[in-house]
Amino acid sequence: MKLIPTLSLWGCSVALIKAQAPTCPLNEISCTIPSNTPTNACCAPTYGLVVFAQQWLPKQGPRNAFTIHGLWPNSCNGSYAPSNGCDPSRNYSNVGKLVQQQNATLYQQMNTYWVSYNGDNGAFWTHEWDKHGTCVTTLAPQCFGKNYRKYQEMMDYFGTVLELRQQYDVYSALSSAGILPGKSYPRQAMIQAVRKSLNIDPWFHCKNGVLDEVWLYFNVKGRNQYIPAQKYSGSTQCPTTIEYPPK
């Protein structure tokens, strides 16, 4: 997976990071490595089944885009990582201000595509980082080597999430099949539209038959290459006909 421009704008040299990071096999894919095989957590994530959750909330974010809920590392059997995160020493406060200071471009993108329903985006990002971002073991400080700078792993996490949103654009996938907000559609038609466009099977979540989230499941190859996890795809909590409301 390509690193998004926001990371280079922040000043991270990808070549330098790789030079200082532990030497990792190029073909290890999370959740396919035998449990008795010693694995460097910097090379293959401990929580190797990752959920990328996108939201469809009325009056939130652009009208032609799903917004981000989060990127959530889970165990390979589908069970959740610790509910209070994985590293309290890296539970940063005032995440919004930190992102703004480190990378104004990324901050602007997050304010557009990663918005809170209650208007406090910074608190939302803080929660997502503390609970989920700290569980991405391939972004632990030691994985960057001696040139690690404070908050570098957090900035890489947010940058990766923004790239996934761009790469897995659910709104565009649906609209390319003529599925637009303001009507109800067969659930299977919506699944097939996403599958055809993005080569991944979505998990739809509804409230009272109304679409509110789409989850995409991934395994991770190496440190940061996200690969669709077909094993956990295609299920849904929505009825056979889904209401897709306008924003």
Automatic annotation (TrEMBL):
E.C. no: 4.6.1.19
Active site, UniProt feature: H69, E128, H132
GO BP: RNA catabolic process
Keyword Ubl conjugation: no
An example Gene Ontology CC term for this record: extracellular region
SUPFAM superfamilies, alphabetized: Ribonuclease Rh-like
Entry keyword set: Disulfide bond, Signal
Major enzyme class: lyase
GO molecular function: ribonuclease T2 activity; RNA binding
Protein name: ribonuclease T2
UniProt source species: Basidiobolus meristosporus CBS 931.73
